[in-house]
Amino acid sequence: MAGEVDRFQHGVALATVLGNWSTGDGPLYRKLADAVARAADDGSLVPGERLPAERELAKVLAVSRATVVAAYENLRERGVVDRRQGSGTRVNGARRVPRSDGRVRGGQGTAIVQRLIDGPGRLISLSCAADAGVPEVAAALRAVADHDITGLLDDPGYHPRGLPALREAVASHYTAVGLPTSAEQVLVTTGAHQALVLLAEVYLKGASAVAVEAPSWAPCLDIFRQHGVRLLPVGLDDEGIDVRALAGVLAEHNPALLYVMPTFHNPTGRLMSATRRRQVAELAARHGVAVIEDNAYAGSSLTADETSLPSPLAAYAPEQGEVLTVESLKGVWAGLRVGWVRGPAGIIERCARRKAMADLGSPLIEQAVAARLVPSLPELSRARSVVQREQFAVLESLLRSRLPEWTWTVPDGGSSMWVRLPEGHSADVYAQLALRHGVEVVPGSTMDPTGQHDGYFRIPYVRRPGELAELVARLASAWTELVRHGPHEDLPLRPVV
């Protein structure tokens, strides 16, 4: 029980659960108290759970200690917490809570997913790096309605492995980019996220560890955390995952999986070189470790011609290697929710069984639209890259003008930049102030458990120029407040007698 009740001793962990607690009207101490009470009511905080010390929570939330003291006292008066000298502040042990709050225990990506559930409201949320759909989606939908719908309606509608036409299209796409593929090696999924869920179910039963890049995208890491495995972070260099460090991790820990994002890594936007792909594939094969390459952001190049990009990492694997390639149509339109995994036919069959148990197969009309789009991916990628270069240029210009103290490296591609705050500043603290200025920031601590990127956060640039201008204006206002004034002083009014 000790591990469970001590989960939130550190302020960052509690801040993740509280989410957008500081938005809305009213004094900060009252909003903080209300957010903690809601978390206790819905089961996010369990009876007996110890809350962070006042100074610790004040530091992380960028408020004064007096604000936290007032919030805790308000919660004590409401019966939500107990406060005892030497024991700290704990959730009232007599409270009754739901059996489950639906959250991923130990997962720092939960708040990011929760934002998608709640909707952005008045906030500008940096948790989502997806643009509007391209016009070709509408054209493909009309073509399906005009030419394909009769055949689809004649079909019973259950294809757990995916619509045959789409599987053939994906196989042809990979063959064309240097990775020979047959339809039997392709499973269609409801987005890339489901592909990762299925692969985790196949590989992680009884497993103890997964090797991952540091940083990496928190919701993806949470998929592995749900299986109780230990994450083994490996840093990056200019060519991708650090192969020397990776060799040490594989030799010492023998993980069940290696998870990498070689084509426009999220959040750094880095492109793994062809040489590094070969090294990683050969190293993993030598140690008998399966590799998941997540290329959800493929087709969004900022610095290179799409035709000159390396083939998927699986193309460099030796015969005994086992590489699963995950991709989606996120860059075409995330709302289409079509993804896939390409791999050895036996693994694909095992994933298909699990998908059949989950949903009996993804919707066919969306797959039919995707089947018409996949052959055009090279042209769609080139057009999208032109637009994203313009969007990136706008954001970079705004940041240089309004926030010259911040630094970043121009990404090779993807849809966001990886920004570093000046030395000594925590992105966790800045994120709390940004919330009060109307921006939801995802700090680097959620993406790297080693602490090496606590001063970083991700800024997606796939927005219209006016939206980018408003975003940077809010970020700059929050930064000015942090630098000039520090934590916000917010005291409850007390009657004078």
UniProtKB/TrEMBL annotation:
GO MF annotation, one: transaminase activity
Pfam families to which the protein is assigned, alphabetical: Aminotran_1_2, GntR
PANTHER family in alphabetical order: HTH-TYPE TRANSCRIPTIONAL REGULATORY PROTEIN GABR
Keyword terms, alphabetized: Aminotransferase, DNA-binding, Pyridoxal phosphate, Transcription, Transcription regulation, Transferase
InterPro entries membership: Aminotransferase_I/II_large, HTH_trans_reg/aminotransferase, PyrdxlP-dep_Trfase, PyrdxlP-dep_Trfase_major, PyrdxlP-dep_Trfase_small, Tscrpt_reg_HTH_GntR, WH-like_DNA-bd_sf, WH_DNA-bd_sf
Region Disordered: start-end pairs: 83-106
Domain HTH gntR-type: 26-94
Protein name: Transcriptional regulator with HTH domain and aminotransferase domain
Family (UniProt): In the C-terminal section; belongs to the class-I pyridoxal-phosphate-dependent aminotransferase family.
Lineage: Bacteria, Bacillati, Actinomycetota, Actinomycetes, Pseudonocardiales
Originating organism: Saccharomonospora xinjiangensis XJ-54
SUPFAM superfamilies: PLP-dependent transferases, Winged helix' DNA-binding domain
